[in-house]
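Quick entry between incubations.
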Amino acid sequence: MTYCIGMLVREGLILMADTRTNAGVDNISTYRKLRLYGNDGKRLIAVASAGSLSTTQGAIQRVTKGVPNPETGKYENWGTFPSIYDAAVATGRALRQVRDSMKDLAQPGVNFDATLLVGGSINGEPSRLFLVYSAGNTIECAPDTPYLQIGELKYGKPILDRALHFDTPLNEAMKIGLLSLDSTMRANLAVGLPIDLLVADAGAGQARINMRIEESDDYYLNLSLQWHQKLAKATEELPLPPY
Amino acid sequence: MTYCIGMLVREGLILMADTRTNAGVDNISTYRKLRLYGNDGKRLIAVASAGSLSTTQGAIQRVTKGVPNPETGKYENWGTFPSIYDAAVATGRALRQVRDSMKDLAQPGVNFDATLLVGGSINGEPSRLFLVYSAGNTIECAPDTPYLQIGELKYGKPILDRALHFDTPLNEAMKIGLLSLDSTMRANLAVGLPIDLLVADAGAGQARINMRIEESDDYYLNLSLQWHQKLAKATEELPLPPY
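Done. Structure below.
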């Protein structure tokens, strides 16, 4: 399992991904699920992946080698897409091809589905963020619900719904995203530290923050502890039922 | 969808269930999913159901009419089970029979699976709580994790994991359960008010509280609002990332 969040607020774009993969509960590994292309001031494409590791690795590999644009016939890759929208659509096409190529391998209990988040900014366009489904179709993040999630998304959704708005400052949004990951990691062993984190100002072609939050990260450990204590206190303070 | 919680703490037993059922998102109804048998001071059996309404109604109907005990050959029903364990096992058997009887009706996208919570106390035994799976097998609630959930369980699990312990007082546990339902109802439209609530003291054969919390319930509305405000405040107060 995996949990990735993409947030697109007024001030910019954030992507977060845990790094745990598992085949069953007895085969757990650490894999990077947040990849960055460009990040040179002109082009920033961030891709987060959830689902079948073989499908997502296959799709990303395919785009790296170059995928034909059905309208122009030209091969495009991370270095040539003219916009994030084009990157998302082409990645969706690659994802579907890889998934379809695995149809013959299907057997009960084995699932080759995968989803991706594709976000960033190319040549100064406003930052955009897309969710790419296994079928290859995409949806775009919009201000009314300024986030998209893939993977193990339910445990960490309530805090996003309550606290995140389009006008939430970027560093506050980062904090809220980490709380969402914290709730998920407490509930599901298949989501775990370290966390890969990307933060980019709106329209930027280069990340402001591109780092890995390790198990020993003082801020994260303290955030998790304080959040737990504050939730306990808030729960305690609520009035008891009169029934 | 549905969300039901059963909590078994030192002081007693709580069952809560929402009342929304849906076939798709455009066919939503209100159905009671928490049923009570006995409640006469000697026998208290509470059954909460999630999943296919036709399966759960069929299984409960079957037990009401009487199901044969494979060891004794005698027919047993809600009024004759000698213990909650026997009630849970017999209900599981009925559930499996009903589900199997629907096999021929199966088609893609239609799921006849269902799960139940069966809890209470018969003839003065200590209160017990079981989760009954579609396959008919059961698991029992134990002090290390003093709750069981069925239905749409992920959104409301974090608050239970954080706040509920075996020594949590009964009225505090009631409050925590309502917060868990509140988180779920905010996240999933297929879970909704009113909420059916049952509270029984440990070992009691009669409920202390057996009521429906309606949309207009002052305490619930206030709890939901205060919780939202306290979460927002707690989130705000947490330190910002130093990255």
